[in-house]
Write a structure and sequence with these properties.
389 residues; mainly beta; Neuraminidase; 3 helices; disordered N terminus; 6-blade_b-propeller_TolB-like; PQQ-dependent sugar dehydrogenase; Quinoprot_gluc/sorb_DH_b-prop; signal; Glc/Sorbosone_DH
């Protein structure tokens, strides 16, 4: 077993300090200067020898790019499909929410979210629709304010003029630590209709092991922002801890939760989430010999992944890589990897930020080349429709 033990590091106040210290920030150094810190062994870790997964390996997967849905998005981050098929997209730096016509690609700005303070990796990040969207028309958003990271909800009124269709934000949850880096930001409603949020430790590694802190956690709450019934710690929204920076959340067909997490400069992780478990950071990065830590089901060197969004489809978790510039497939057998992960689209579309199910064997995949770290082309950023097996 590959072991990576890490001592608690000093608080990192800025992204520049991270880079000079040789640590990769979540999305990687735009100049690529920190790539030399990655280990030479870049293979994703496979199941133990002799496992049942090896005896009956699943068929190799495939990815087909069906079409480009739209282009010209600026610093897109969150992606939420509407019931009729269109897509809502958040812009990290512009703090706007835009509706994309799924058939024509036409973009209509719904409005700007007030109170967003974009800087570094912070800004308007994840978005999600209320589980009762058909009746309440509520859009939830996770963003960085001047003082913290918080979650708000806004009513979407299509009858109002374009640019004025988002109602005033109602703050659902506040007080998540903010930083120049490691702001987390992914939100999603689970099969239980509870709201889940992936947070980062904001560069202060000590927060991850502190169960009283909201940083470096997966949070679970009611749609109104109260700690969800059945959470592992009394009167707390904390669902799991010991995370560095969680930006991917997805459930399989058995309602099991998986999460993607940025490593520092050794291992990125895909984890199967168990309520109350400790995922190791900063004491462990990747697999560990410490029985008190929950090991990842798969891990990658940071130059191969730097994962943001994940989705479940066709029996696999699909993971979007920023610095890795590829889409990973991790076939599952329960909460374990059933075979070696496979990489697709390597280097073809640049940095990949968000992937969400589009029904059946389809996925929506959104790029992230206009966020200041990618090599933006004239048509970036874009949303692609994929067919996967």
């Amino acid at each position: 077993m590959i072991v990576q033990r890490r001592a608690v590091t000093a608080v990192l106040a800025t992204a520049a300090l991270l880079l000079t210290a040789g640590c990769s920030s979540d999305d990687g150094d735009p100049s690529g200067a920190d790539a030399s810190t990655s280990p030479s062994n870049t293979a994703a870790q496979s199941p133990p020898s002799g496992s049942a997964a090896e005896e009956t390996p699943p068929a190799k997967g495939s990815v087909e790019v069906v079409r480009t849905v739209t282009t010209g998005l600026q610093s897109p981050w969150g992606l939420a499909p509407l019931p009729g098929g269109d897509l809502l997209v958040s812009s990290r730096d512009e703090a706007t929410v835009t509706r994309v016509d799924e058939k024509t690609g036409k973009k209509t700005e719904l409005g700007e979210v007030p109170g967003v303070s974009p800087a570094g990796e912070g800004g308007l990040l994840g978005i999600a629709l209320s589980p009762d969207y058909a009746s309440d028309r509520m859009v939830y958003a996770y963003f960085t304010s001047a003082s913290d990271n918080r979650i708000v909800r806004m009513r979407y009124d299509e009858k109002r003029p374009a640019g004025e269709q988002l109602g005033a934000p109602d703050t659902v949850f506040r007080g998540i630590p903010k930083g120049v880096v490691h702001n987390g930001g992914r939100i999603a409603f689970g099969p239980d209709k509870m709201l889940y949020a992936g947070t980062g430790e904001s560069g202060d590694t000590g927060l991850s092991q502190d169960k009283e802190s909201l940083g470096g956690k997966i949070l679970r709450m009611t749609p109104d922002g109260d700690p969800a019934p059945g959470n592992p710690f009394p009167d707390s929204a904390v669902y799991s801890y010991g995370h560095r920076n969680v930006q991917g959340l997805a459930w399989d067909d058995e309602q099991r939760l998986f999460a993607a997490e940025f490593g520092q400069d050794t291992w990125d992780e895909l984890n199967a989430i168990k309520p109350g478990d400790n995922y190791g950071w900063p004491e462990a990065e990747g697999e560990s010999d410490g029985s008190e830590f929950h090991d990842p089901l798969a891990q990658w060197s940071t130059d191969e992944a730097s994962p943001s969004g994940i989705a479940h489809a066709e029996g696999s978790v699909w993971m979007a890589g920023l610095r890795g510039e590829r889409l990973w497939r991790v076939p599952l057998k329960g909460t374990e990897a059933a075979a070696d992960p496979q990489a697709f689209l390597e280097g073809e579309y640049g940095r990949l930020r968000t992937v969400v199910p589009a029904g059946g064997d389809k996925l929506w995949l959104m790029t992230s080349d206009t966020d200041g770290r990618g090599d933006a082309k004239e048509s970036d950023d874009r949303i692609l429709e994929l067919r996967v097996t």
